C-alpha cells in the first residue's frame, strides 16, 4: 500500500487554510514553537478516549505503535475485521491517499458502526467535519458502514462513587450529517492533493482563518510582514474588527485619524502602543478602595489561588471540567514575613480545604489579588483596574492576563518556568496521575505561586505610587 499523503489532522488544516496545509507538508520547519498553554490544552483530554473504550469492552487495539507503521495498522485492522473481531480500537483505514484512525469500530451484523470520541462537553462544527472525513475514508476503503457516531462528555454527570461510563458519555449518531457532507469532502480531498503537487505555496493573505477554528502553526511566518505595533496589538478590538480596520486603513495612526467608531478605551490602547508608554488613570472608585485599604488596621496580603479543571471528575459530587482550587500562596505586602504556600495533596477534593484554610488564614487581614476568580473570600481584585481601562501597558498586546501583566511589570520568567495558570493546572493534574517528573513539576508550581504573589505586590506598589 502506498504511503498516505493526507491524514485527519492535515485534511482539517487544509479546510482551515490551504497554505497552512502546504507549509505543514513542505516546510514544517517554519512552524511556530507551540506555546506551553496550547500543549496543556491538547494533553488534557488524552485519557478520555481510553475511558470511552469501556463502553465497548473486549476490543483489540490496531493503532500504529510508531509513526512509520500506519500502513501496517491499516493491514492489521483489515485482518482483525476478516478474522471475526467484534470490537477494534484505533482502527486504521486508507483511501485516496488519505489515512484516518477511528477510536472504536464495532461489528453490527454484516456491517459496522463507527465511534469517534471527543474530550469535550459539546459538539462543534469541526467535530462534524472530522467525522465526515472519517466516514468518507472508511466507506471508500470498501467497508459497509452502518452508522457513524460521536461520543462526548455529559457536562451534567456528577460523580458518585466509581465512574459510571454509561452516564458519563453521550453518544450522538451523526451519520446523516456525514452523508450530506460527502460531496464537499470528496472535492476537498481532490483539491488538497492537487495543491500539494504544486511547486509553490498557494497565495493566501492573512485573515480570520489564521485563528479559526484553531490558531494556525505558521502565524510567525505569515505575519512577519505586518508592521508592529498594529491594530492586532489592541486587545479591546475583536479579531473581525481588527481585520476590517487593518484592511481599510493599515497602521494605527491612520486608524486613529480617520475611523470615527474608535472609542476612548481603544484610543488609549492605540496611543500606548504607538508611544510605547503605559497608561494609568485611577477612577474615583478605585481611589476610594485604596483609601479604605490604607486606612484599615488590618495587615495587607497578596493572594494567588490556582485551579484545575479535570476533564473526567476525580472527586465525588464533582462534574466534568469543574473548576477546583488546589493551591494558594499568601504574601504580606509590607515585607514583614515569608510567602506562605499551600498545595493540596489532592487525595480528597481540595476545593473545600483550600477555602477553609484561606478563610482561616485571612481573618483580620485584607487580601489583594489579580484575576482571583472566587466569591468564597473577599479579595480586592486588581484586574478590575485593567478591565476598566484605568491601567494599560503595551506589553498587553493580546489580552490582560497575569502572564502579560508580568511582562508589563518587567518580571522575566526563568527558563522552563510556568508562566500561566493553565500550565500549572496541567502539571497538577499530571502529578495526581503519578507523572514520573512529579517532583520537578511540584517545584515549578511552588515557584509559580511565589512569583504570582510577588507580581500582585509589585503591581499594587506601582498603582500606589
Ligand atoms: S497564518 Fe494564516 S495565512 Fe498563514 S498559513 Fe496560517 S492560516 Fe494560512
CATH class of the largest domain: Alpha Beta
Which CATH architecture of the largest domain would you pick?
Alpha-Beta Complex
Give start-end ranges of low-pLDDT stretches: none
Q: Which cofactor or ligand species appear?
A: iron/sulfur cluster
Shape: globular
Total number of strands: 14
Overall pLDDT confidence:
94
Question: Could you please say which CATH topology of the largest domain applies here?
Answer: Lambda Exonuclease, Chain A
Integer-rounded radius of gyration:
26 Å
Question: Which features characterize this protein?
Answer:
465 residues; 19 helices; seven-stranded mixed sheet; binds iron/sulfur cluster; Nucleotidyltransferase, domain 5; Lambda Exonuclease, Chain A; five-stranded mixed sheet; 3 domains; alpha/beta
What can you see in these coordinates?
This protein is of the alpha/beta class. It has three domains: 6-196, Lambda Exonuclease, Chain A (Alpha-Beta Complex); 223-277; 284-464, Nucleotidyltransferase, domain 5. 42% of the residues lie in helices and 17% in strands. Strands 1, 2, 3, 4, 5, 6 and 7 form a seven-stranded mixed sheet that branches. The chain has a five-stranded mixed sheet with strand order 11-10-9-12-13, sandwiched between helices. β2 (60-61), α5 and β3 (87-95) form a beta-alpha-beta unit. α1 (8-16) packs across α2. The structure holds iron/sulfur cluster. Iron/sulfur cluster is lined by residues 17, 19-20, 23, 204, 206, 209-210, 216, 218-219, 222.
